[in-house]
Design brief:
Blueprint lengths: L16 H5 L11 H8 L9 H4 L7 H9 L3 H10 L4 H7 L11 H4 L7 H15 L14 E5 L3 H12 L3 E5 L8 H4 L8 H13 L3 E3 L10 H7 L2 E4 L5 E2 L12 E3 H12 L5 H4 L9 E5 L3 H12 L4 E5 L11 H9 L3 E3 L2 E7 L6 E12 L5 E5 L5 E4 L2 E4 L3 E2 L3 H4 L27 E3 L2 H4 L4 H29 L1
Parallel strand pairs: 1-2, 1-4, 2-3, 4-16, 6-14, 7-8, 7-14, 8-9
Antiparallel strand pairs: 5-15, 10-11, 11-12, 11-13
Helix pairs in contact: 2-4, 2-8, 4-5, 5-8, 6-8, 9-19, 13-15, 15-16
Bound molecules: flavin-adenine dinucleotide (FAD) and iron/sulfur cluster.
Length: about 475
């Protein structure tokens, strides 16, 4: 260990731009065993490991780095999976530059962070290849059941934790495939779909019942599910796209980001997608403008490039330093030919029937706001025009109106529309109904959804044990 002084930082090779622009495959090649070991050996085994402190799952990073450096990959995997239900997903798409790697002591000392994400991906991919990832063997089946609404990372992580304890788990999801945003939001070039599908397959083989095409609110009310199960978890994510309320907003060819990304992901999965096939949700040959500066915007611009758009511009009202998206993803987008129009905000969409251009205001940054980021202010007389055949709105997501949707007007929400929970237990105001993931936090990260899923599983366990105790006393 401690080899950071002699060995420089190295990530797995990133494919050359021409080779990644014409397909949707992941852009990083794999580490070979020797490289993973060598890079892991750069870790200085800190007494206070800031990588671990800044990991939402408190992953035991220094220990699995040491095991990797020693070639003990199976043990490294066992450790990595003991705190994380989807380490192969986090290794690929966690914004490590803002979490573990951004806080690595070696990074802070100017030597370049240990490449934690790439090593995590290496050990977990090796585990899948070697057959070390196995379905759960339940030794002690219990008769209590939990109904989980939503098969995204929060619902799946909670389901796995509870199944390990022997509970009967049914997950209901309105999509036709499990995985939530991992399957229909995040594009293949960040997370290939076989990675999600093999994980959900193993959960099904563990005895978790996943019912697809089942929308709570339409196919059953929340109350009906409460009668059917001993406890309920709501893990439905946030899907209401934020709107741009500007003149011309109803012109044709202006789309919400999720419509565009879902169509593209479905094509990648081999589905027939009429709106893509007839060209409406396909950017080929078009001048595309994406509005927004987060991870969703980055996924839209890079998907547009791969669909062979004529040009792709990203309009963002702050500058590069104040962008919410991962710096790594911005760099990838720049390399792939995306043009960033910093400090600019749309004023009007122009066109006859279809959008043809945008009138855009220049922005200057004022004093920092409550979030610490400098506030965007419009510059007087700064308008300019940008040509566009297609506009994609990636301005973030809000929760849907769950009390209305679930026909459960007593279910309490916060002023943002997220579900109100007791932060100790993650239980909503309805007894035995819990909530986790984006529907509680607002749009967040996969690693936080997994963390919530694990925490809520523990609360549900306590609730079910209490419930069992009460019923046995009555009997
Ligand atoms: C385009 C995009 C890119 C992203 N990129 C990253 C990234 O690179 N890294 C990262 O860490 N995070 C990323 N995120 C965020 C991350 O995907 C989410 O934080 C995470 O998926 C939230 O998990 P969840 O389980 O709470 O919800 P979701 O993943 O949204 O899953 C919710 C599930 O609930 C189901 N559902 C909803 N309503 C109902 C209903 N009424 N009945 C039945 N089922 C229902 C949905 O079909 C869905 O399957 C990205 C998000 C987006 C949109
Ligand atoms: S902070 Fe960096 S050097 Fe320290 S234990 Fe974590 S990975 Fe190793």
């Amino acid at each position: 260990m401690l080899k950071f002084v002699k060995i420089g930082q190295q990530n797995p090779p990133k494919r050359e731009v021409p080779n990644r622009k014409n397909n949707f495959n992941e852009i990083y090649d794999e580490f070979i065993k020797e490289k993973a070991g060598e890079q892991a050996s750069r870790c200085s085994q800190c007494g206070v490991p800031f990588c671990q402190v800044h990991c939402p799952l408190s992953n035991n990073i220094p220990d699995w780095l040491k095991l990797t450096a020693e070639g003990r990959i199976k043990e490294a995997y066992d450790l990595a999976q003991s705190t994380n239900n989807m380490p192969e997903v986090c290794g690929r798409i966690c914004p490590q530059d803002r979490l573990c790697e951004g806080n690595c002591v070696i990074e802070q000392s100017g030597h370049g962070t240990v490449t934690i994400g790439a090593v995590e991906k290496y050990i977990t991919d090796t585990a899948w290849k070697e057959g070390w990832v196995k379905p759960i063997q339940v030794n002690n089946e219990r008769d209590q059941s939990v109904g989980i609404i939503g098969a995204g990372p929060a619902g799946l992580a909670a389901g796995e934790q509870l199944r390990k304890l022997g509970y009967q788990i049914t997950i209901y999801d309105r999509y036709d495939r499990a995985g939530g945003l991992l399957i229909y939001g995040i594009p293949n070039f960040k997370l290939e779909k076989f990675v999600v599908e093999r994980r959900t397959k193993i959960l099904k083989e563990s005895g978790i019942n996943i019912i697809q095409n089942f929308e709570v609110g339409k196919d059953a009310t929340l109350e009906e599910l409460r009668k059917k199960h001993d406890a309920i978890l709501i893990a439905t994510g946030v899907y209401k796209a934020r709107e741009v309320d500007l003149p011309g907003k109803d012109l044709d060819n202006i789309f919400p980001a999720m419509d565009f990304l879902t169509a593209s992901n479905r094509k990648g999965l081999g589905d027939k997608v009429e709106l893509f096939d007839n060209g409406r949700l396909n950017t080929e040959g078009k001048e595309v403008v994406v509005i927004g500066g987060g991870d969703t915007a980055m996924d839209c611009v890079r998907t547009s490039i791969r669909q062979n758009a004529k040009s792709v511009k990203c309009l963002y009202r702050r500058d590069k330093e104040n962008m919410p998206g991962s710096a790594r993803e911005v760099l990838n987008a720049e390399e792939e030919g995306v043009e960033f129009v910093w400090l600019s905000s749309p004023k009007e969409f122009v066109g006859k029937g279809k959008v043809e251009s945008l009138i855009v205001n220049k922005i200057k940054l004022g004093e920092p706001d409550d979030s610490g980021r400098r506030k965007p202010e419009i510059k007087n007389n700064s308008e300019f025009n940008i040509k566009a055949d297609m506009v994609i709105k990636a301005l973030g997501f809000d929760p849907e109106n769950l009390p209305k949707l679930f026909n459960s007007k007593d279910l309490q929400v916060t002023k943002w529309g997220t579900l109100k929970v007791d932060f100790e237990t993650m239980e909503t105001n309805l007894p035995g109904v819990f909530a986790a993931g984006d529907i509680v936090r607002g749009a967040s990260l996969v690693v936080w959804a997994i963390r919530d899923g694990r925490d809520v599983a523990e609360s549900i366990r306590k609730f079910l044990e209490q419930k069992k105790l009460k019923t046995s006393r009555v009997a």
